[in-house]
Design a protein that fits this description.
With 193 residues, the chain is an alpha+beta fold. It is built from 5 helices and 9 strands; from the N terminus they run αββββαββαααβββ. Strands 1, 2, 3, 4, 5, 6, 7, 8 and 9 form a 9-stranded antiparallel sheet that branches. Helix 4 (109-117) packs across helix 5. Bound molecules: flavin mononucleotide. The site of flavin mononucleotide has 15 residues, from strand 2, strand 4 and helix 2. Flavin mononucleotide binds next to strand 2, strand 4 and helix 2.
């Protein structure tokens, strides 16, 4: 039995990638700004290691503003084909510019231009205005490399609590909770479903 939560996550994630028809890396990200009112949206997991769970976005988006005001956040994976969920809670920190540059460079040219074209989360007058803006940028970047916009980067959720939930018969589901201690070690316990 795997008793390290990061290793357990990797094992479940590998099974999810094999089982899910699409977007096994999709996770709900919950944030709450200074007022404490939660908001949630899907993002894609773009890196996982012992430090935590990385995703990329526009830092001037609603989620970016909420994280800037309150670094506490939560992630949720629900892999329906496997009837499993993973709940993760902790603090969010920026990945740093070198890591953001490296990931941005792996995106398609269209997606890189899209990052320039979208004022994510802010009001858009019309779909046509967005498309015109995108086409204008395509023309402007013609023959040039598309660098990462300064407002677009990654964040890493540094987990303090990770719970693995497994569907079991008679609703006697299994919940394995891992809590990170001050020295970095993890303790494991079970929760009633
Ligand atoms: C499956 C899925 C994956 C998504 N992945 C991302 C992502 O990795 N980064 C991102 O900024 N938005 C992603 N989105 C869009 C977000 O859900 C959201 O609409 C957007 O980031 C704006 O959120 P905000 O206004 O709360 O900041 C994804 C949406 C879906 C449905």
């Amino acid at each position: 039995m795997i008793t390290d939560p990061h290793a357990l996550f990797e094992s479940w994630f590998a099974e999810a990638r094999a089982a899910e028809p699409n977007d096994a890396e999709a996770m709900a990200l919950a944030t709450a700004g200074a007022g404490g009112r939660p908001s949630v949206r899907m993002v894609l997991l773009k890196g996982h290691d012992e430090r935590g769970f990385a995703f990329y976005t526009n830092s001037e988006s609603r989620k970016g503003a909420e994280i800037a005001a309150n670094a506490q956040a939560a992630l949720l994976f629900h892999w329906k084909s496997l009837r499993r969920q993973v709940r993760i809670e902790g603090t969010v920190a920026p990945t740093g510019t070198a890591e953001a540059d490296a990931y941005f460079a792996t995106r398609s040219r269209d997606a890189r231009i899209g990052a320039w074209a979208s004022d994510q989360s802010r009001p858009l007058e019309s779909r046509a205005a967005f498309e015109a803006r995108y086409e204008k940028l395509v023309a402007e970047f013609e023959g040039e490399d598309v660098a990462r916009p300064g407002y677009w980067w990654g964040y890493r959720l540094l987990p303090e609590r990770i719970e693995f939930w497994t569907d079991r018969p008679h609703r006697l589901h299994e919940r394995r909770l891992f809590v990170r201690l001050a020295d970095g070690a993890w303790t494991e316990s079970l929760l009633y479903p």
